[in-house]
Amino acid sequence: MLFQENIPMKEYTSLKIGGRARWFSSPNNKEELKKVLSFATTMDIPIFILGSGTNTLIKDEGVKGMVIKLGGDFKNVEIQNQEVKAGAGCLLSSLITQVSGFSLSGIETLYGIPGTVGGAVFGNAGCFGVQISDYVKAVTVMGNDGTEQIVKDVNFFYRGSSLKDKIILDVLFSLKKDVKWRIEEKINEALKKRSTAQPVSAKTAGCIFKNPEGKFAGELIEKAGFKGRSVGDAVISTKHANFIENRGSATSEDVISLINMVKRRVWELYGVMLYEEIVIIN
Ligand SMILES: Cc1cc2nc3c(=O)[nH]c(=O)nc-3n(C[C@H](O)[C@H](O)[C@H](O)COP(=O)(O)OP(=O)(O)OC[C@H]3O[C@@H](n4cnc5c(N)ncnc54)[C@H](O)[C@@H]3O)c2cc1C
């Protein structure tokens, strides 16, 4: 079945929030993806590409358009010497496990970022001083008209890229050789830091806000007294104030109200405007 209708999106996001997608498709390869795009274009249906939904808030009223989640061949990884071509649907942690098996180093610090390669490259995911863009050589994208293009000069910036309005199909990484034990050590170090600082087992969407230049959003939110504040079941994490946890049956409205309260107060107190890192969809 190329696509389904009225599919609940809750299970497709790490926050476990969101209504139904009017249309949902998980193409296994480029040919299927092209058919889905052609259908969407003919019917004038807007599309949204979903990775693992770990940086996304889907509204309770659902998605009016077509949600596309790349599956099948889009999860493949090909390793040739130090060059690695990874499908956009592959989980970042799975890619890191695979390349570290070949003693390839660079992106291991990102282990623990719970998204896909496509989501990570789209948003230039990073942590502990490493950004995924540091190792990206080229990105293959598809336009809504089904045409493919290899982009070698992607403009990456803090938590973003110039790949807006493109579907990332695969990513070519250029990695370095290192010894396995050192790569594994870096993975373990990153996981340890992450579990000390972040509510890793809660239902969250990662950091809600981007860090303003020279400042940490989490620190500003904590200083403003928001740790533990809630709207419904949406709670500002007591572990890291830039995370909102869904402690039960939080709605997208609860999360958005909390976001707006934080933005207003941080602006009033510190004159700093916070901008969302998460993507809000309806
Ligand atoms: C506990 C936790 C910890 C986190 N820690 C970090 C961290 O340390 N650093 C960090 O940067 N992020 C972090 N995140 C946020 C998130 O995991 C990353 O941003 C991740 O890269 C998002 O990937 P995803 O596949 O889940 O993307 P999604 O949330 O599914 O999508 C995010 C955006 O990417 C776009 N997108 C996804 N796939 C494609 C594609 N194939 N083509 C085009 N566009 C696409 C979507 O359209 C959307 O706009 C964390 C999240 C959680 C829950």
How would the blueprint of this fold be written?
Layout: E1 4-8, E2 20-25, H1 30-43, E3 47-49, E4 56-58, E5 63-68, E6 77-80, E7 83-87, H2 92-100, E8 104-105, H3 117-122, E9 126-127, E10 130-131, E11 136-142, E12 148-151, E13 156-157, E14 160-161, E15 167-174, E16 176-177, H4 180-197, H5 217-223, E17 230-231, E18 234-236, E19 244-246, H6 252-270, E20 279-281
Parallel strand pairs: 2-5, 3-5, 4-20
Antiparallel strand pairs: 1-2, 6-7, 7-15, 8-16, 9-10, 11-12, 11-15, 13-14, 17-18, 18-19
The helix count comes to: 6
* Helix fraction bin: 25-40%
Number of domains: 3
CATH secondary-structure class of the largest domain: Alpha Beta
Which ligands are bound?
flavin-adenine dinucleotide
Task: Identify the CATH architecture of the largest domain.
Answer: 2-Layer Sandwich
What is the global morphology? Answer: globular
Largest sheet: 5 strands, antiparallel
* Rounded average pLDDT: 97
State the distance separating the first and last CA atoms: 24 Å
Q: Characterize the quaternary organization of these chains.
A: single chain
Radius of gyration: 19 Å
Strand segment tally: 20
CATH fold name of the largest domain: Uridine Diphospho-n-acetylenolpyruvylglucosamine Reductase, domain 3
Query: Beta fraction of the residues?
Result: 25-35%
Give, in spatial order, the strands making up the sheet with the most strands: 6-7-15-11-12
User: SSE order in H/E notation?
Assistant: EEHEEEEEHEHEEEEEEEEHHEEEHE
Class derived from helix and strand content: alpha+beta
Uncertain stretches: none
